[in-house]
Specification:
Elements lengths: L26 E3 L6 E3 L4 E7 L16 E8 L2 E8 L12 E2 L4 E4 L11 E7 L49 E4 L11 H11 L17 H13 L16 H8 L3 E4 L1
């Protein structure tokens, strides 16, 4: 699996306009296929689409994979569009989302020249049919605005609601080792474990839902980490899919506080 979008300033490809002057009003981040795409804030999935291949198309409007996330920003409803994702998105319409939850993986589906993540932001909670409203009524000579565009729809730059340096609440915090065993349910420590495992490259690794439940899928991924990264022998007590104190220190790193 690829690493998540890095903290700090990300390289931006296309911004307010395309190189030939056409309207874009979004941010394009040229990141490798398979880069984790996470929610920028708590919200709900207003609409989404999955199933388009990662073969880019030169056709405008070509089917792509995307997630439209409804959030509240500055006391107002807003929508954030994440587009060109790889097939196999991690969410469904109506699902409630926490900041930092995995939405899917970046890709090159739809009208694209290569792998990148397209992010746009609009006022209001939108639908699938209105997810491109940020492009409406932008003047031919309108320059990049500092905030809301003249159409009153687009929040630009999207970094006003999408700050790359914020990794989300699961990228740090307290982890209780007593919760890191098979059968634990509804645990923030398990959510942090699932988040960390999703962002480690493992052979035959699988994406985990950030459920907080230490289910069989979570146990399997933890076992892979124990064998592939911690050097434990398959079938040994140290590779049983449960994470002990020493392993927790290695797995989570300095951003987390490990507790008994």
């Amino acid at each position: 699996m690829a690493q998540p979008l890095p903290a700090g300033k990300l390289k931006v490809g296309t911004g307010w306009r395309y190189s030939k002057g056409g309207k874009h009003a979004a941010f394009d981040y040229p990141v490798p296929t398979g880069t984790s795409v996470t929610a920028v804030a708590d919200g709900v999935v207003l609409a989404c689409h999955d199933g388009a291949s990662n073969v880019p198309s030169s056709k405008v409007g070509a089917e792509s994979n995307w997630v439209l996330l409804g959030i509240v920003h500055g006391g107002r409803k807003a929508s954030v569009l994440f587009q060109h994702l790889s097939p196999g998105i991690n969410v469904k319409k109506g699902q409630k989302i926490k900041a930092g939850d995995l939405l899917g993986k970046s890709g090159s589906s739809g009208h694209a020249t290569g792998p990148h993540l397209h992010v746009a932001a609009m006022w209001g909670h939108r639908t699938a049919a209105t997810r491109y409203d940020y492009l409406q009524d932008i003047g031919a000579r309108e320059k990049e605005p500092k905030g809301t565009a003249a159409n009153g729809i687009c929040i630009y730059p999207p970094s006003q609601v999408y700050t790359a340096s914020k990794e989300g609440p699961l990228a740090s915090g307290e982890v209780f080792v007593s919760k890191l065993h098979f059968g634990t349910t509804n645990s923030d420590s398990v959510k942090r474990l699932q988040f960390v495992l999703n962002n480690i490259k493992l052979k035959d690794g699988k994406n985990l839902g950030l459920s907080g439940n230490y289910d069989l899928a979570t146990k399997n991924e933890a076992t892979k980490w124990q064998i592939q990264k911690d050097g434990c022998l398959p079938g040994s007590a140290a590779a049983d899919g449960n994470i002990g104190p020493k392993q927790a220190g290695k797995l989570f790193g300095p951003k987390y506080t490990i507790k008994a």
